[in-house]
Design goal:
Helix content: 25-40%
CATH topology of the largest domain: N-terminal domain of MutM-like DNA repair proteins
CATH architecture of the largest domain: Alpha-Beta Barrel
Number of helices: 7
Shape: elongated
Strand order of the largest sheet: 1-6-7-5
Order of helices and strands: HEHEEEEEEEHHHHHEE
Structural class: alpha+beta
CATH class of the largest domain: Alpha Beta
Distance between the termini: 29 Å
Oligomer: single chain
Largest sheet: 4 strands, antiparallel
Length: 271
DNA sequence: ACTTCGACCTGTTGGC
DNA sequence: TGCCAACAGGTCGAAG
């Protein structure tokens, strides 16, 4: 479900409801997410005020005076703001109750996500420490990506999906960005010229920004924190369009697997 | 140091 | 219509 635009949409949706609000209670219904939720979370969080809601890559960071809650939505997770009396469903694993009678509810059928409580400096957290730059920051530019790519044998698609290189480019937006840039996803990252990276970086930024602007991509059941769908799925040019005609040249789009992920591209437009 | 690939889960889809 | 294999937005960490 969530790539960077979906996580950003979630962040924007929950912020007004939780920022500067005091946690009254934490309900843990299921603790075995990707990593166990430690008792420290329900011991330390109640009584704390959420000072800020931030995003780093696909991680959400809720800061308090006592520590930071680090949340990842994995493949199928979501965070919703619900009313205090709203009954919990099968996959509603964590509720964070606030003084304003609202609940921040974590739902995740596959449980690939995580919810970790960290008391020390969050920027030094092992999951964050070696992440690459944010794709929408100015430091993520063609020179950066080009220099990182030298000597790399990975395909360009796998390369831009590597969070040590750049965060937040998941399978949907990797496919879309490469289509927009006219680059064949199988091409080796180390052999692509600087000029093509100029184009690619521009396309990655455009695709992600546009997806954020319309509230993310809804596939199956993604909705924002109010239950509203995202509208970027209407803009998808290649993802999920295997066997259909390329929007630019009508050639039938091809699907292959790269790094165990489905990869759709136009064999004519993408070289 | 690098790359590849299994593993973690449940729900949905598509082919027979 | 029903069954079951294959697949799904991620990414860590072991193995090679």
């Amino acid at each position: 479900m969530p790539e960077l635009p979906e996580v950003e949409t979630t962040k924007r949706g929950i912020s007004p409801h939780v920022k500067n609000q005091r946690v009254s209670k934490v309900i843990l219904r299921r603790k075995n997410l990707r990593w166990p939720i430690t008792p420290a979370l329900s011991e330390d969080l109640p009584g704390q005020v959420i000072d800020s809601v931030a995003r780093r890559g696909k991680y959400l960071l809720l800061a308090t005076g006592k520590g930071t809650l680090l949340i990842h939505l994995g493949m199928s997770g979501s965070l919703r703001i619900v009313d205090a009396k709203q009954a919990a469903g099968k996959h509603d694993h964590v509720d964070i109750l606030f003084g304003n009678q609202r609940i921040l509810r974590y739902t995740d059928p596959r449980r690939f996500g995580c919810m970790l409580w960290h008391k020390a400096d969050i920027s030094q957290h092992p999951l964050l420490i070696s992440l690459g730059p944010e794709p929408l920051d100015s430091e993520f530019d063609a020179n950066y990506l080009f220099s990182k790519s030298r000597g790399k044998s990975a395909t360009i698609k796998t390369f831009i999906m590597d969070s040590k290189i750049v965060v937040g480019v998941g399978n949907i937006y990797a496919n879309e960005s490469l289509f927009m840039a006219g680059i064949n996803p199988k091409r080796r990252a180390g052999k692509i010229a600087l000029a093509r990276y100029v184009k690619l970086v521009d396309c990655i930024k455009q695709v992600l920004q546009k997806a954020i602007d319309v509230g993310g991509t809804t596939l199956r059941d993604f909705t924002d924190s109010n239950g509203e769908p995202g509208y970027f799925s209407q803009s998808l040019q290649v993802y999920g369009r295997k066997g259909l005609a390329c929007v630019a040249c009508q050639t039938i789009l091809k699907e292959i697997r790269l790094g165990q992920r489905s990869t759709v591209y136009c064999p004519r437009c993408q070289r």
